[in-house]
Amino acid sequence: MNKKIIIRTLEKIALYMELKGENPFKVSAFRKAAQALELDQRSLDEIEDVTKLKGIGKGTGDVIVELIEKGKSTVLEELQAEVPSGLVPLLKLQGMGGKKLAKLYKELGIDSAEALKQACLDHQIQKLPGFGPKSEDKILKELTDFESKPGRHPIWKTEEAVRFIEDVLEKIEGVSEFSVAGSYRRTKETSKDLDFIVATAEPAKVKEELLAALPIQETIASGDTKVSVTVEFQDLIDIDFRLVAPEEFVTALHHFTGSKDHNVKLRQLAKSQNKKISEYGVEQEDGSVATFTSETDFYAHFGLPFIPPTVREDGREFDRLDDIPNLVALEDIRADLHMHTTWSDGAHSLKEMIEANRSRGYEYMVITDHSHYLKVANGLTPERLLAQNAEIRELNKQYSDIEVLSGTEMDILPDGSLDFNDEVLSQLDFVIASIHSSFQQPREQIMERILTAMKNPHVDMIAHPTGRIVGQRSGYDPDVEQLLDWAKEYGKIVELNASPYRLDLAVEYLEMAQEKGVPVAINTDAHAVNQLEVMAIGVRHAQKSWLKKDHVVNTWPLERLREYLKN
DNA sequence: GCCGTTTTCGGCCCGACTGTTTTCAGTCG
């Protein structure tokens, strides 16, 4: 029995229990059991007694054992006999929970989206106690939105909205401080909605100006301190604003940054210290409420070091506090190893790119334009590459504060060959190999191509190793574990491509790379000078993967990297 | 259902908002 199937079954049981109107704590016990299993790194065979795990007791333990031994769960089967499966997807409707759906099923026999819609149209819902005409309208609207609204927004889409809103808030008088919070602040790949914390002594005025400045499609909720709206950018996106008093800013920011699991853990810790955390402050034993001027102070109040938003996820961060000071940070970055110029498909010249890197304070950089196979990107022929190489060597003489290295982003062709021969490659300082074509090939063929690049002694790094676009395409589906094993064997670097479109490798694979001892480079793949800024996103993505500074090659001094590349 | 250096019962993070009520349940994050 697969561990993932067990985790999903426990979660499924929780869903059905919710629809049965079970005690919410019982429901969450099943979710916690699923999470306990998921967070344990061991395989099922390696766990001797599941009930030894915190969060798994007799009830959930029995379910797990039955699943392992018989491949089924009596508990789930009984629930499924009682609760129609058509209700499960309805839990996703905004404003609909287990209790309401249970009532609708019990009173009106509603067991599917169609039945729910019909009951609304027949005005059956408003007859029930606890429901009214507004409930009916809302459900109908939700049922329609359900199909059209995108579920989660990739980070490259939310970025635009965040910038826009930041500009708006910047201009509103009476706003003393503001920040984006939520999963965006934690640098998740995708976000369900955006959260902003706004500190102000004049909430009514600020709220009014804020709402007037946004392209609002719909107002979901509008209270004194909380405003939820659907805003029209590229897509429709839900945004929550919290208007708080200036002294509450830090605790509110922390609260709405989450994650939920992180907050629960911290609140439990606070409780053990006879303190109570809310978004307004920390209530002390004597009833007074402490507020803070920084999150660092806030954490220190509980005897904790500052925990960066990027690692506030499943609660395990509290067990890894000692690793936090070693996590890679933006100021550790000494170089960018992947960027393009007007020689191929970049927007800026060699000189402009060099100046932009200098002004970021980098100690070295690598120019890596595309190779000739990539005709749409005006890829360089061997002749042009060598000409560029010469120009870079010449330009480099002009700078004493930055070392400009000559490289390439060379295509791994569909037939598995490389776009430049060894003689050309041997003249470069840094060689990137990457796949830009024939993504649909079977995995074996993709892996063959990757292996060719791995075996070539001139290749130093594999760029965007899976070819994914966050929230849009999954890439060419390589066997990443195998890829990392090869990288280890052949001494290659794997890239963390910092472009918010890519963030490739993903978190789970970066964790795997670090475990296997495969070094990582965080690169922007910039095609214009302003794109060098995405290094910050890449570094946060790296933190999320718990990458330590020393594991990231572009935090190394150039001499150390050169030494490494020789091997 | 799970948990326990105040334990085997009584908590389980905490508060806002909505729509229904006429003081609160349900949902959400």
From TrEMBL:
Q: PANTHER family, from UniProt? A: PHOSPHATASE YCDX-RELATED
Gene3D superfamilies (UniProt xref)? 5' to 3' exonuclease, C-terminal subdomain, Beta Polymerase, domain 2, DNA polymerase beta, N-terminal domain-like, DNA polymerase, thumb domain, Metal-dependent hydrolases
Alphabetized CDD domains for the sequence: NT_POLXc (cd00141), PHP_PolX (cd07436)
Q: Which organism is it from?
A: Planococcus chinensis
| SMART domains with a match to the protein in the record | HhH1, POLIIIAc, POLXc
Which cofactors are named for this entry? Mg(2+)
Keyword Acetylation in annotation: no
The enzyme class is transferase
Q: Which residues form the DNA-directed DNA polymerase X domain?
A: 1-313
Which keywords fit this entry according to its UniProt record?
DNA replication, DNA synthesis, DNA-directed DNA polymerase, Exonuclease, Hydrolase, Nuclease, Nucleotidyltransferase, Transferase
Its recorded name reads: DNA-directed DNA polymerase
MF-aspect GO terms: exonuclease activity
